Amino acid sequence: MAQEDQMPHKLQLNERRQLTMTGVTEVVSFDEGAVILQTSLGTLIVQGRELQLKTLSLEGGQVAVDGNISALTYEEPRQNGGWRRRLFG
Predict the structure, then answer these.
(1) Do residues 16 and 47 touch, judged by C-beta distance below 8 A?
(2) Which of 5, 20, 30, 82 can pair with 35 through a Cys bridge, CB separation 3.0 to 4.6 Å?
(3) What is the arrangement of strands in the sheet containing 34-39, beginning at the earlier edge strand?
(4) Any idea what the Cα angle at residue 47 is, between residues 45 and 84, rounded to 5°?
């Protein structure tokens, strides 16, 4: 995707329990411990407990995650091995 065509990527985290974001292009995987998202600025890994996807609108690039959020980690696009290696060792 060309730089000028990218969706704006914004995050808002409220009290480590409610995360809303824009600029999400794909939900790679999710479970109660981790949500892995492809964004216009790279892969975002949301880690925590009791995580739930509350809003999912990929046409608009909007996603909301509720739960006990403990970490937000970005990885640069096209990194070999990337998030799988870091998450699962």
Answers:
(1) no
(2) 30
(3) 10-14, 18-22, 62-75, 42-57, 34-39, 24-30
(4) 50
Distances from the Cα of 14 to the Cα of 35, 62, 75, 82, 83, angstroms: 17, 16, 23, 28, 25
Distances (CA, A) of 38 to 15, 30, 58, 76: 23, 12, 11, 10
pLDDT of amino acid 4 = 46
Alpha carbons 43 and 49: distance in angstroms, whole number? 20
Residue type (1 letter), 73: T
Residue 27: the pLDDT is: 93
Global pTM?
0.79
Name the residue with higher pLDDT: 82 or 73.
73
Output the pLDDT for position 1.
45
Structure tokens at 43: 């892969």
